[in-house]
Amino acid sequence: MPDRTAPVIVASGLRKAFGRQQVLDGLDLAVARGEIFALLGPNGAGKTTTINVLTTLVRPDTGTATVAGIDVARDPEQVKRRISLTGQSAAVDDALTGTENLVMLGRLSGLSRRTARVRAGELLARFGLTDAATRRVGTYSGGMRRRLDLALSFVVAPEILFLDEPTTGLDTRSRRELWEVIRSLADAGTTVFLTTQYLEEADHLADRIAVLDAGRIVAVGTAAELKARVGGDAVELHDAHGELLRKVPTDGSVSGLRRALDVLDESGAEGIVTLRRPSLDDVFLALTSPDGRGERRAVPAEAPADTAKELA
Questions:
Q1: pTM here?
Q2: Which of 3.90.1150.10, 3.30.1050.10, 3.30.470.10, 3.40.50.300 would CATH assign to domain 3-82+158-228+280-311?
Q3: What is the full DSSP assignment across 155-190?
Q4: Which of 121, 179, 218, 246 could cross-link 301 (Cys pair, CB 3.0–4.6 Å)?
Protein backbone atom coordinates (compact mmCIF):
# COMPACT_ATOMS: atom_id res chain seq x y z
CA MET A 1 0.00 0.00 0.00
CA PRO A 2 1.16 3.61 -0.60
CA ASP A 3 2.84 5.52 2.20
CA ARG A 4 -0.06 7.76 3.23
CA THR A 5 2.22 9.89 5.40
CA ALA A 6 3.84 11.42 2.33
CA PRO A 7 1.46 13.50 0.19
CA VAL A 8 2.93 14.26 -3.21
CA ILE A 9 -0.01 16.36 -4.46
CA VAL A 10 -1.73 18.88 -2.20
CA ALA A 11 -4.39 21.44 -3.15
CA SER A 12 -5.96 23.90 -0.76
CA GLY A 13 -8.81 26.30 -1.44
CA LEU A 14 -8.45 26.23 -5.22
CA ARG A 15 -10.83 28.54 -7.03
CA LYS A 16 -11.04 29.12 -10.76
CA ALA A 17 -13.64 30.94 -12.80
CA PHE A 18 -13.96 31.38 -16.54
CA GLY A 19 -15.93 34.54 -16.99
CA ARG A 20 -19.01 34.26 -14.79
CA GLN A 21 -18.75 30.49 -14.48
CA GLN A 22 -17.16 29.34 -11.21
CA VAL A 23 -15.55 26.01 -12.09
CA LEU A 24 -13.50 25.35 -8.96
CA ASP A 25 -14.99 26.63 -5.74
CA GLY A 26 -12.61 25.98 -2.85
CA LEU A 27 -11.22 22.59 -3.84
CA ASP A 28 -9.09 20.71 -1.29
CA LEU A 29 -7.35 17.38 -1.82
CA ALA A 30 -4.20 15.44 -0.97
CA VAL A 31 -2.72 12.49 -2.85
CA ALA A 32 -0.24 10.06 -1.29
CA ARG A 33 2.99 9.11 -3.00
CA GLY A 34 2.57 5.95 -5.05
CA GLU A 35 -1.21 5.74 -4.92
CA ILE A 36 -3.73 5.65 -7.73
CA PHE A 37 -6.14 8.49 -7.03
CA ALA A 38 -9.33 8.76 -9.08
CA LEU A 39 -11.39 11.92 -9.44
CA LEU A 40 -15.05 11.34 -10.31
CA GLY A 41 -17.74 13.89 -11.06
CA PRO A 42 -20.48 14.82 -13.51
CA ASN A 43 -19.73 16.73 -16.69
CA GLY A 44 -18.82 20.31 -15.84
CA ALA A 45 -17.88 19.50 -12.24
CA GLY A 46 -14.31 20.72 -12.76
CA LYS A 47 -12.31 17.50 -13.27
CA THR A 48 -10.29 18.65 -16.27
CA THR A 49 -9.77 22.12 -14.77
CA THR A 50 -8.38 20.47 -11.64
CA ILE A 51 -5.87 18.50 -13.70
CA ASN A 52 -5.00 21.60 -15.73
CA VAL A 53 -4.25 23.54 -12.55
CA LEU A 54 -2.14 20.74 -11.07
CA THR A 55 -0.17 20.35 -14.31
CA THR A 56 0.45 24.14 -14.63
CA LEU A 57 -1.69 24.57 -17.75
CA VAL A 58 -4.13 26.88 -15.91
CA ARG A 59 -3.39 29.26 -13.04
CA PRO A 60 -5.90 29.22 -10.18
CA ASP A 61 -7.57 32.50 -9.21
CA THR A 62 -6.95 31.80 -5.52
CA GLY A 63 -5.68 28.93 -3.40
CA THR A 64 -2.47 26.93 -3.57
CA ALA A 65 -1.32 23.65 -5.06
CA THR A 66 1.95 21.78 -4.80
CA VAL A 67 3.11 18.82 -6.86
CA ALA A 68 6.18 16.93 -5.63
CA GLY A 69 6.56 19.71 -3.09
CA ILE A 70 6.75 22.40 -5.79
CA ASP A 71 4.26 25.24 -6.04
CA VAL A 72 2.53 24.95 -9.43
CA ALA A 73 2.09 28.71 -9.78
CA ARG A 74 5.54 29.82 -8.60
CA ASP A 75 7.71 27.23 -10.36
CA PRO A 76 5.76 25.57 -13.19
CA GLU A 77 8.87 24.52 -15.11
CA GLN A 78 10.11 22.43 -12.19
CA VAL A 79 6.69 20.81 -11.87
CA LYS A 80 6.68 19.90 -15.58
CA ARG A 81 9.98 18.06 -15.14
CA ARG A 82 8.43 15.76 -12.55
CA ILE A 83 5.15 14.87 -14.27
CA SER A 84 3.63 13.37 -17.38
CA LEU A 85 0.17 14.25 -18.70
CA THR A 86 -2.21 12.54 -21.10
CA GLY A 87 -5.28 14.62 -21.91
CA GLN A 88 -8.65 13.68 -23.35
CA SER A 89 -7.55 14.04 -26.97
CA ALA A 90 -4.59 12.36 -28.64
CA ALA A 91 -1.51 14.59 -29.01
CA VAL A 92 0.45 12.73 -31.65
CA ASP A 93 2.18 13.77 -34.88
CA ASP A 94 0.12 12.50 -37.82
CA ALA A 95 3.03 12.83 -40.25
CA LEU A 96 5.24 10.40 -38.30
CA THR A 97 4.89 6.66 -37.83
CA GLY A 98 4.02 5.15 -34.48
CA THR A 99 7.65 4.18 -33.93
CA GLU A 100 8.90 7.63 -34.93
CA ASN A 101 6.55 9.35 -32.47
CA LEU A 102 7.83 7.22 -29.61
CA VAL A 103 11.50 7.43 -30.56
CA MET A 104 11.30 11.20 -30.95
CA LEU A 105 9.84 11.63 -27.47
CA GLY A 106 12.38 9.21 -26.05
CA ARG A 107 15.24 11.22 -27.55
CA LEU A 108 13.73 14.48 -26.26
CA SER A 109 13.51 12.85 -22.84
CA GLY A 110 17.24 12.07 -22.85
CA LEU A 111 17.26 8.45 -23.98
CA SER A 112 19.98 7.25 -26.36
CA ARG A 113 18.86 6.41 -29.89
CA ARG A 114 19.17 2.67 -29.24
CA THR A 115 17.36 2.81 -25.89
CA ALA A 116 14.62 4.95 -27.40
CA ARG A 117 14.03 2.42 -30.20
CA VAL A 118 13.97 -0.51 -27.77
CA ARG A 119 11.52 1.35 -25.53
CA ALA A 120 9.36 2.23 -28.54
CA GLY A 121 9.16 -1.45 -29.52
CA GLU A 122 8.19 -2.46 -25.98
CA LEU A 123 5.43 0.12 -25.81
CA LEU A 124 4.05 -0.65 -29.27
CA ALA A 125 3.74 -4.30 -28.23
CA ARG A 126 2.19 -3.45 -24.85
CA PHE A 127 -0.47 -1.27 -26.46
CA GLY A 128 -1.21 -3.60 -29.37
CA LEU A 129 0.31 -1.40 -32.08
CA THR A 130 3.21 -3.53 -33.35
CA ASP A 131 1.51 -4.25 -36.68
CA ALA A 132 0.99 -0.51 -37.24
CA ALA A 133 4.46 0.56 -36.05
CA THR A 134 5.64 1.69 -39.50
CA ARG A 135 2.39 3.31 -40.60
CA ARG A 136 1.87 7.05 -40.49
CA VAL A 137 -0.31 7.97 -37.52
CA GLY A 138 -2.59 9.91 -39.86
CA THR A 139 -3.88 6.51 -41.06
CA TYR A 140 -4.66 5.25 -37.53
CA SER A 141 -8.18 4.79 -36.23
CA GLY A 142 -9.33 6.85 -33.27
CA GLY A 143 -8.73 4.00 -30.84
CA MET A 144 -5.24 3.37 -32.21
CA ARG A 145 -4.35 7.04 -31.88
CA ARG A 146 -5.54 6.95 -28.27
CA ARG A 147 -3.39 3.94 -27.48
CA LEU A 148 -0.34 5.60 -29.04
CA ASP A 149 -1.01 8.78 -27.08
CA LEU A 150 -1.08 6.75 -23.88
CA ALA A 151 2.10 4.90 -24.86
CA LEU A 152 3.86 8.27 -25.16
CA SER A 153 3.13 8.89 -21.47
CA PHE A 154 5.13 5.81 -20.54
CA VAL A 155 8.29 6.41 -22.61
CA VAL A 156 10.02 7.52 -19.42
CA ALA A 157 8.28 6.42 -16.22
CA PRO A 158 7.31 9.72 -14.56
CA GLU A 159 7.29 10.43 -10.84
CA ILE A 160 3.67 11.60 -11.16
CA LEU A 161 1.35 10.64 -14.00
CA PHE A 162 -1.83 12.60 -14.74
CA LEU A 163 -4.42 10.84 -16.88
CA ASP A 164 -7.54 12.73 -17.96
CA GLU A 165 -10.10 10.08 -18.93
CA PRO A 166 -7.35 7.81 -20.27
CA THR A 167 -9.49 4.95 -21.57
CA THR A 168 -12.07 6.97 -23.50
CA GLY A 169 -12.35 5.44 -26.96
CA LEU A 170 -10.75 2.12 -25.99
CA ASP A 171 -12.51 -1.23 -26.19
CA THR A 172 -12.95 -3.38 -23.10
CA ARG A 173 -9.84 -5.48 -23.70
CA SER A 174 -7.61 -2.45 -24.31
CA ARG A 175 -9.06 -0.70 -21.26
CA ARG A 176 -8.26 -3.64 -18.99
CA GLU A 177 -4.76 -3.95 -20.45
CA LEU A 178 -4.18 -0.30 -19.63
CA TRP A 179 -5.37 -0.91 -16.07
CA GLU A 180 -2.57 -3.48 -15.72
CA VAL A 181 -0.02 -0.96 -17.01
CA ILE A 182 -1.23 1.73 -14.61
CA ARG A 183 -1.19 -0.66 -11.66
CA SER A 184 2.35 -1.81 -12.49
CA LEU A 185 3.53 1.81 -12.59
CA ALA A 186 1.96 2.52 -9.20
CA ASP A 187 3.52 -0.64 -7.77
CA ALA A 188 6.90 0.68 -8.96
CA GLY A 189 6.33 3.99 -7.14
CA THR A 190 4.66 6.26 -9.70
CA THR A 191 1.79 8.35 -8.36
CA VAL A 192 -1.22 8.22 -10.70
CA PHE A 193 -3.92 10.91 -10.68
CA LEU A 194 -6.75 10.12 -13.07
CA THR A 195 -10.19 11.26 -14.01
CA THR A 196 -12.58 8.78 -15.54
CA GLN A 197 -16.17 8.50 -16.72
CA TYR A 198 -16.13 4.75 -16.05
CA LEU A 199 -17.16 4.03 -12.46
CA GLU A 200 -16.05 0.42 -12.87
CA GLU A 201 -12.59 1.71 -13.72
CA ALA A 202 -12.30 3.73 -10.52
CA ASP A 203 -13.70 0.83 -8.48
CA HIS A 204 -11.23 -1.65 -9.95
CA LEU A 205 -8.14 0.54 -10.11
CA ALA A 206 -8.08 3.35 -7.56
CA ASP A 207 -6.62 3.16 -4.06
CA ARG A 208 -8.79 6.15 -3.18
CA ILE A 209 -11.57 8.01 -4.93
CA ALA A 210 -12.69 11.62 -4.62
CA VAL A 211 -16.13 12.76 -5.76
CA LEU A 212 -16.17 16.26 -7.24
CA ASP A 213 -19.38 18.24 -7.59
CA ALA A 214 -19.83 21.92 -8.43
CA GLY A 215 -16.11 22.58 -8.03
CA ARG A 216 -15.72 21.03 -4.58
CA ILE A 217 -14.69 17.64 -3.25
CA VAL A 218 -17.81 16.28 -1.53
CA ALA A 219 -16.43 12.88 -0.50
CA VAL A 220 -13.12 11.03 -0.50
CA GLY A 221 -12.13 7.51 0.53
CA THR A 222 -11.65 3.98 -0.71
CA ALA A 223 -14.36 2.45 -2.87
CA ALA A 224 -15.53 0.38 0.09
CA GLU A 225 -15.68 3.43 2.38
CA LEU A 226 -17.71 5.44 -0.12
CA LYS A 227 -20.12 2.57 -0.72
CA ALA A 228 -20.64 2.16 3.02
CA ARG A 229 -21.73 5.79 3.25
CA VAL A 230 -24.73 5.24 1.01
CA GLY A 231 -25.92 2.18 2.89
CA GLY A 232 -24.73 -1.36 3.49
CA ASP A 233 -25.80 -4.68 2.05
CA ALA A 234 -29.47 -5.59 1.89
CA VAL A 235 -31.52 -8.64 1.04
CA GLU A 236 -34.30 -7.69 -1.37
CA LEU A 237 -37.48 -9.46 -2.35
CA HIS A 238 -38.83 -8.72 -5.84
CA ASP A 239 -41.98 -9.86 -7.56
CA ALA A 240 -42.01 -11.55 -10.97
CA HIS A 241 -41.97 -8.13 -12.66
CA GLY A 242 -38.91 -6.95 -10.79
CA GLU A 243 -40.77 -4.63 -8.43
CA LEU A 244 -39.25 -4.33 -4.96
CA LEU A 245 -41.53 -5.83 -2.27
CA ARG A 246 -39.31 -5.88 0.82
CA LYS A 247 -35.79 -4.78 1.69
CA VAL A 248 -33.98 -6.02 4.82
CA PRO A 249 -30.57 -4.51 5.74
CA THR A 250 -27.78 -6.97 6.57
CA ASP A 251 -24.11 -6.80 7.53
CA GLY A 252 -23.20 -9.30 4.81
CA SER A 253 -22.18 -12.07 7.22
CA VAL A 254 -23.64 -15.56 7.00
CA SER A 255 -25.57 -15.05 10.25
CA GLY A 256 -26.77 -11.65 9.04
CA LEU A 257 -28.05 -13.15 5.80
CA ARG A 258 -29.88 -15.85 7.72
CA ARG A 259 -31.59 -13.27 9.92
CA ALA A 260 -32.63 -11.26 6.88
CA LEU A 261 -34.06 -14.36 5.20
CA ASP A 262 -35.92 -15.24 8.39
CA VAL A 263 -37.51 -11.77 8.36
CA LEU A 264 -38.66 -12.30 4.79
CA ASP A 265 -40.02 -15.77 5.61
CA GLU A 266 -41.99 -14.40 8.54
CA SER A 267 -43.54 -11.73 6.33
CA GLY A 268 -45.18 -14.44 4.23
CA ALA A 269 -44.36 -12.59 1.01
CA GLU A 270 -43.17 -14.59 -1.98
CA GLY A 271 -40.86 -13.59 -4.79
CA ILE A 272 -37.27 -13.56 -5.97
CA VAL A 273 -34.62 -12.98 -3.30
CA THR A 274 -31.40 -11.15 -4.17
CA LEU A 275 -28.46 -9.75 -2.22
CA ARG A 276 -27.84 -6.13 -3.17
CA ARG A 277 -24.59 -4.36 -2.43
CA PRO A 278 -24.07 -0.63 -2.98
CA SER A 279 -22.05 0.33 -6.06
CA LEU A 280 -20.11 3.39 -7.09
CA ASP A 281 -23.13 4.26 -9.22
CA ASP A 282 -25.11 4.60 -5.98
CA VAL A 283 -22.37 6.77 -4.49
CA PHE A 284 -22.21 8.94 -7.59
CA LEU A 285 -25.96 9.47 -7.76
CA ALA A 286 -26.25 10.14 -4.03
CA LEU A 287 -23.44 12.69 -3.83
CA THR A 288 -23.66 14.62 -7.08
CA SER A 289 -26.33 16.95 -8.41
CA PRO A 290 -28.04 16.04 -11.68
CA ASP A 291 -27.19 19.41 -13.21
CA GLY A 292 -23.69 19.80 -11.75
CA ARG A 293 -24.68 22.76 -9.58
CA GLY A 294 -24.31 21.08 -6.22
CA GLU A 295 -28.05 20.79 -5.48
CA ARG A 296 -28.05 17.13 -4.41
CA ARG A 297 -26.48 16.02 -1.13
CA ALA A 298 -28.31 12.84 -0.13
CA VAL A 299 -25.36 11.72 2.02
CA PRO A 300 -23.53 14.14 4.35
CA ALA A 301 -20.04 14.73 2.96
CA GLU A 302 -16.97 14.39 5.12
CA ALA A 303 -14.65 17.38 5.24
CA PRO A 304 -12.10 16.68 2.49
CA ALA A 305 -9.66 19.15 4.00
CA ASP A 306 -9.08 16.60 6.81
CA THR A 307 -7.54 14.28 4.23
CA ALA A 308 -4.64 16.66 3.70
CA LYS A 309 -4.07 16.82 7.46
CA GLU A 310 -4.08 13.02 7.72
CA LEU A 311 -1.56 12.65 4.91
CA ALA A 312 0.70 15.50 6.06
A1: 0.75
A2: 3.40.50.300
A3: SS--SEEEEESTTTT--HHHHHHHHHHHHHHHHTT-
A4: 218
